[in-house]
């Protein structure tokens, strides 16, 4: 494709809606993720982040709306679009009777990689994610953080152009988190695109160049981190937009022991 004709957005999601019974989880979200950006999605519990990320990675079909990945319609042409994507879903269920090394190998083979390519990438990923010692341990015996890291390895073994990672740092120790951040930064420096959801504002502020603040299934603010936070910190801007701070007058029974 002529580079000048390449779509500017790695992910272009418009008018996404999703309801679960009577709960409207996502109420008309647009998410425009520029190619080569490191994009954070933040919002309170239940805001609709996981539902949105599931819809932009083809794991959940929207009730309405449109998603394209580098210009390919995700729902019309899922094979092409999903080849471009590496998705780390929330609470991912893995085949945990496999070892970490087997699981990454299996993911790579399913993605159509050659056996020798899979073997070398598996070794590299285990090393990069501090899982070398655990490579021959069953995933069912992994800690939450180890499980998160091996899930990340399975999501990226095929070399996606866009990573969509739901809470990638949750339960991960600080050294591993720093290693993962380095991997993601290098991926972006090489022209890749990363979307992460997180509750840690300071992390998003430090790591991401773009951010969307989501609450009650809607985008309250989106753009570059500088545009969204203005003269405040991202956390202050988040609290200002989302509200919900409580005074600590209640729970007296907890304070009187
Ligand atoms: N499978 C489901 N069935 C019913 N309701 C659901 C389902 N998944 C999500 N919801 C509801 O949709 C809303 C949005 O949930 P979602 O998991 O997308 O939020 P979130 O922003 O990722 O929250 P958190 O930060 O707590 O992970 C919530 O009200 C939730 O209860």
From TrEMBL:
Q: Show the InterPro entries listed in the entry.
A: AAA+_ATPase (IPR003593), ABC_transporter-like_ATP-bd (IPR003439), ABC_transporter_ATP-binding (IPR050763), P-loop_NTPase (IPR027417)
Membrane topology of this protein: Peripheral membrane protein
Record's subcellular location = Cell membrane
Q: Where is the signal peptide?
A: none
Q: Name one Pfam family in it.
A: ABC_tran
Looking up CDD domains in the UniProt record yields: ABC_DR_subfamily_A (cd03230)
Which positions fall inside the ABC transporter domain? 11-241
Citing just one GO molecular function, the answer is: ATP binding
Entry keyword set: Antibiotic resistance, ATP-binding, Nucleotide-binding, Transport
Q: What is this protein called?
A: ABC transporter ATP-binding protein
Organism per entry: Flavimobilis rhizosphaerae
